From TrEMBL:
InterPro entries: PorZ_N, Secre_tail, WD40/YVTN_repeat-like_dom_sf. This is PorZ N-terminal beta-propeller domain-containing protein. The keyword Signal applies. It comes from Flavobacterium xueshanense. Residues 1-19 form the signal peptide. It comes from the Bacteria. It holds the Pfam family PorZ_N_b_propeller. Keywords: Signal.
């Protein structure tokens, strides 16, 4: 396989960022799951699942930072802003630390803890505490020093019994001692003791499981795992009871004037006299299904982090007004499926396991992105549709959208409003019955529109697994028990419909099933050299390309049916692997890979998503791997690719991963019907521009010739799809000089032509 054009260098310290002149990435992250919060005098910093945002309380400007900017797609567990150094430190569950220099936006990734010879499940970073230029990093194994001046780690303190690893949840400084709350007591040691790596220097003040500790004014407070808040007595060198919370505390912190305790359902704010100044409960906020995660205060404003509803503010002195200041984005980062048109993008969040098990059922809504921004339709408005796993936009009316529920049926949305949930009572859909006649479970998955406006629908684990909803509202069912080995054991993946109207269905047990209602004939491609040559019968995705080939993604690799027209013959259809040369050895493209999706762009390139190896872009015949994007060489937040779709008008490739949605701005747009909309951009090309010139709005196989003003030919090419790039060189040898260049475009048959101009300024 051709090596990726991108590279990644593993270093102890990695200066992050993926900005490249020929690549364009965009992030569409959810900021609703707030993990932690920090503050300065004029700004608040909130960490969501795998992205950050900050709000300047003076200018009200909101800034976001995500994997496009250089963050990791791993799960964030802690954040801290150092006002002294103007740096924001992000801690992750896997032990990664990322330092953001707020002065210039540079990002540094520090992997010392990730590389420590410790079990991977005890590297989580829980808290940062700064003292004299050093942050004391509380981890699930102990405490680590990190110097904010040198950006280097210092000592590691293993303070458990006999120097064992121990979960340290939080640290605080008080009267010359560093105190640490752990899952086995509160421990302390003199902060200036030069031998803190010796566990014997750490004394146990009290036993028990303690979640938080903080200095407030002239006192020290701690809270245990049962919500018991205690105050340290310098007289007795012990903690004594202060108050009992009704729930365990999920966060404890102090500002100059306030002590803040957060539980799942309440926030308790104490003033300097330890008088409860305000209690904020979830039922006081209009948002539904609220759960608090953390809170802090700047001036008179309380900033509240929630589990699923983002970041909420309220005035400390007013109990009535709440404002959600979360940056716009989808409801969740784990987008399972999406579909794009030139104007809109729809996403759904349901899922199922590798063996198509939708349990435990999830209750999320559906989201839409357009020029107006994000619209999130909550679960409360989708008529109880659970585990929505596909979304399909009517190509003749993008205001009509259908979402497949792998438990509840088929949801129809018109003009952004859910209108009806088709189920066993009001449509041709059926519930599976092997659990019992009284249990309703309608597993709709793959859906697709044909050229006549019929919506084809698959329903798993029933006899009549293929159905069609006609434009007049009538349903028709097709029995599949004759073609499937066991219909009630079969699950369906995606559907593709070719130019002949043949429906290609991916199945979990029987490979690919083809069906054409004109002949009322079913045929299938499955395993075995004489029955289809698939590597495994579990097929997840099928896609028809512009050359009428059927690309088949299985849980064990890739196959291609050379011509979908072979369905019309009487012969057994046979799919073939793509054999490539890698290191002069013949190998199978994507051998044994679990393929989750295949999308075909305007130039007939294939974007192929995998379950754990990231994203591949291969040439039309698969012989060249143009890109292999992973979390190590690109802004992908995860190597788990759930779904891919392409905006045919712009070439933007949307990539739904398990940890966020990103897009890659390609140049392979769909071909146009004529040259009336051909255009060139950028135009003019200014000296600071380092990218390529795009000639868009083309016919497929159009001939493009570029000359200088005197008629000297400097470039010639044939378009693949609707867009072509020119690197502004004369046949790849040298950059052309400043001037006006003529672009002559002609259709393949020479009947239609177009002339455009572009000015280049060096």
């Amino acid at each position: 396989m051709k090596k990726s054009v991108l590279s990644f260098l593993f270093l102890l310290f990695v200066q992050m960022g993926f900005a490249q002149s020929d690549l364009s990435w965009q992030g569409y992250f959810s900021y609703n799951e707030i993990k932690d919060v920090s503050e300065s005098v004029t700004a608040v910093f909130a960490a969501s699942e795998n992205a950050l945002f900050s709000k300047n309380t003076t200018t009200n400007l909101i800034k976001t930072t995500n994997t496009i900017d250089g963050l990791s797609g791993q799960t964030i567990s802690s954040v801290y802003h150092s006002a002294t150094f103007n740096k924001t430190i992000v801690g992750y569950e896997n032990g990664l630390i990322i330092v953001i220099n707020e002065a210039d936006g540079s990002i540094l990734s520090v992997v010392d803890i990730v590389n420590k010879h410790l079990p991977a499940n005890i590297k989580k970073i829980n808290h940062f505490m700064e003292f004299e230029g050093v942050t004391y990093v509380s981890c699930d194994f102990g405490i680590v020093q990190f110097n904010l001046t040198t950006m280097q780690f210092g000592d590691t303190y293993f303070i458990g019994d006999n120097g064992a690893e121990i979960i340290v949840n939080q640290t605080a400084l008080f009267n010359g001692f560093i105190y640490a709350t752990t899952n086995n007591g509160i421990k302390r040691a003199a902060i200036f003791n030069e031998n803190l790596i010796d566990f014997n220097q750490w004394a146990t003040i009290t036993t028990g499981n303690w979640s938080g500790i903080t200095t407030f004014g002239t006192d020290l407070y701690a809270v245990d795992s049962f919500g018991n808040v205690q105050k340290f007595s310098t007289t007795s060198n012990s903690f004594t009871g202060f108050t009992q919370l009704p729930q365990r505390a999920v966060d404890m912190r102090a500002t100059t004037n306030y002590l803040i305790l957060t539980t799942l359902n309440s926030i308790y704010i104490y003033n300097n006299q330890m008088v409860l100044l305000r209690q904020i409960n979830t039922n006081q906020i209009p948002e539904s299904n609220l759960g608090f995660t953390c809170a802090t205060i700047i001036g008179d404003v309380v900033f509240i982090g929630t589990k699923e509803n983002g970041f909420i503010t309220t005035s400390l002195s007013s109990a009535a007004t709440f404002e959600n200041i979360t940056p716009a984005g989808p409801s969740r980062n784990n987008i399972f499926a999406l579909q794009a048109t030139p104007n809109v993008l729809w996403t759904v969040y349901g899922d199922y396991s590798g063996d198509y098990n939708p349990y435990p059922l999830n209750s999320y809504g559906i989201s839409k992105f357009s020029a107006a921004g994000w619209l999130n339709i909550p679960y409360e408005k989708v008529f109880g549709a659970k585990s929505m796993t596909r979304v399909t936009i009517n190509p003749s009316n993008e205001n009509e959208v259908y979402a497949s529920s792998f438990f509840s049926g088929l949801l129809k949305i018109e003009n952004d409003v859910p209108k009806i949930l088709y189920n066993q009572t009001n449509s041709g859909l059926e519930s599976l019955t092997f659990v019992g006649p009284n249990y309703i479970d309608i597993r709709v998955n793959g859906t697709a529109f044909d050229k006549s406006g019929n919506l084809w629908v698959t329903t798993s684990r029933i006899k009549n697994g293929l159905k069609v909803l006609k434009p007049n509202g009538q349903w028709q069912s097709y029995a599949m028990d004759a073609i499937l080995a066991s219909a009630i054991d079969n699950n369906f993946g995606t559907i593709a419909i070719d130019k002949n109207g043949t429906k290609w269905l991916s199945t979990s047990e029987d490979g690919v099933v083809g069906f054409n209602e004109s002949s009322n004939k079913f045929k299938k491609i499955t395993t075995g050299p004489d029955t289809g040559n698939l590597p495994i019968s579990n097929v997840r995705v099928v896609a028809v390309d512009t050359r009428n080939q059927l690309w088949i993604g299985t849980t064990k690799g890739l196959r291609v049916l050379p011509n979908v027209g072979s369905f019309q013959s009487g012969d057994q259809m046979t799919a073939n692997p793509i054999i490539i040369l890698e290191d002069n050895l013949a190998q199978e493209l994507l051998y044994e890979q679990f393929i989750t999706d295949i999308a075909v762009d305007g130039a007939n390139n294939k974007w192929i998503g995998t379950a754990d190896s990231g994203l591949f872009l291969v040439s039309p015949n698969g012989q060249e791997t143009k890109y292999h994007f992973t979390i190590n060489n690109s802004p992908l937040p995860s190597n788990v690719i759930n779904d891919i779709d392409i905006n045919d008008a712009t070439g933007e490739v949307f990539i739904a991963t398990a940890k966020g949605l990103v897009s890659f701005k390609g140049v392979s747009t769909a071909a146009n019907d004529d040259l009336s909309n051909a255009y060139v951009y950028p135009n003019p090309v200014r000296p600071e521009y380092q990218g390529t010139i795009k000639i868009a709005g083309l016919l497929d196989k159009a001939t493009i010739k570029i000359t200088d003003i005197e008629g000297n030919l400097v470039h010639e090419a044939t378009s693949e799809g609707g867009t072509m790039e020119w690197d502004t060189t004369a046949f790849g040898k040298y950059k052309v000089a400043s001037g006006v260049y003529m672009i002559f475009i002609s259709a393949q048959d020479g009947v239609e032509t177009k002339v455009k101009k572009v000015m280049i300024i060096r």
